[in-house]
Amino acid sequence: MPDDPSDASSFRAPPAPTDLRRPGPESCAALAAWDRGHVWHAFTQMQEYEPLLIERGEGCTLVDSDGRRYLDGSASMWCNVHGHGHPRLDAALVAQARRVAHTTNLGLSNPTTIEFAKRLVEVAPPGLEKVFFTGDGSSAVEAALKMAFQYWLQADPPREGRTKFIAIGEAYHGDTLGAVAVGGVDRFTSVFAPLTFEPIRLPSPGGVCPSTGRPAPTLGESLELLERVLVAHEGKIAAMVMEPVMQAAAGIWIHPAGYLRGVRELTTKHGVLLILDEVAVGFGRTGTMFACQQEGVVPDFLCLAKGLTAGYLPMAATLTTAEVWQAFLGTYAQRRTFFHGHTYGGNPLAAAVGLASLDLFRDEAVLESLPPKIARLGEHLDRIAKLGVVGAVRQCGLVGGIDLVADKGSRRAFPWQEQRGMKACLAARQHGAILRPLGDVVVIWPPLSITLDELDRLCHAAEAGIRAATE
Predict the structure, then answer these.
(1) Share of the chain above pLDDT 70, in %
(2) Residue 80: pLDDT above 50?
(3) What is d(CA 205, CA 202) in angstroms, rounded to the nearest whole number?
(4) Domain end: 306, 331, 363, which one?
(5) Is residue 87 a contact partner of residue 11, using CB atoms and an 8 Å limit?
(6) What's the count of helices (H) and strands (E) in the chain, helices before strands?
(7) Count of alpha carbons within 13 angstroms of residue 348, beta-carbon side
(8) 223: domain range?
(9) How many domains are there within the chain?
(10) With contact defined as beta carbons under 8 Å apart, do 242 and 276 qualify?
(11) 167 with 129, same domain?
């Protein structure tokens, strides 16, 4: 195998060791028992959990331990970009492992991570020149929040009074405590409220308020409210944090065109830093490499993860400006250092795959291939919207959200305890697709590499699952 990961022509994976090949029925039963007995799954009620053991992936298909095949309709939790087992990504991973699997990024570096940082700066919006690596999306947001706070303490002149953050209703920014604080999905965050700080919360311009049922404010109302908050708290706000263009975990809520641009103009006007969380929507998901490019916006902090390594390895990055960076420079005695970091931040294995992924975006014209896929998804959503149990559908790039409702006319919800969204996604497995809902919103979020034929089959499976769960 060549050391150059971009040359995958001679790449052949070594034979799998015997103990890693498909387990037999007895082994599968044992694995399922061990899974139930020892593995605590994220966002999963373990008392009701039923194992599904995914053994391998091939392109946009996942194969379970019984040999059943499923289209990966959730991109393996919104992170897979180029499909599973892409030979160039596999080759990059193996080639780097032959050099070194991990070295610390605390006071040391390695060539692969350096090159990856440079390439990220080249594809990012202009002005984002500094890259801080962490391990996951929550950590990328956490780093941005702490950087923004510390920046004002060390600015010239210092502005110690800037301690507040603005966040949006029903936002999701991760599960570490700082990210939880600026998050707004009550079922994820309320229990931890005593451990966190309280942000200034603005209503989302993308969806109905879940607690009051009020419709989303208009674009004008949203921006007017933001400016009132900025004026009322002049000199006290460190940063505003938001998901640009689309709020994913809220239920695929789409912001009106112009909102992001308006937020950037107002935060700039009032000297407030802007943190954009593109953990879910970055790397082509909305049709451009980064969602903020939809409106020509450059934030002060850009938080990336998930698709950063095409779904292969955990890695995250917080990109920021030279101005922010400058505030952290000084002698050791001045204590201006950013005392924050993770053991695996800047891991060279992850960086190698990230580099190969950026090469694939270029060489396989990934962004250029998206318009027909986005259009085809829209056609399927238009058809599904006609079902009697569908209250609304929403689409942003290659992602769709389908609201399941008990009454179409009033959009009355099903009782949440009935878990209609989850039942629809479980039923879709019988039709060869793995989906994951957001409450009673069925989400279609495939790898960007999905073909039109696969997209057709995925959407028909989703529709069949919805019918089965609501008849």
Answers:
(1) 93
(2) yes
(3) 9
(4) 363
(5) yes
(6) 14, 17
(7) 19
(8) 90-363
(9) 2
(10) yes
(11) yes
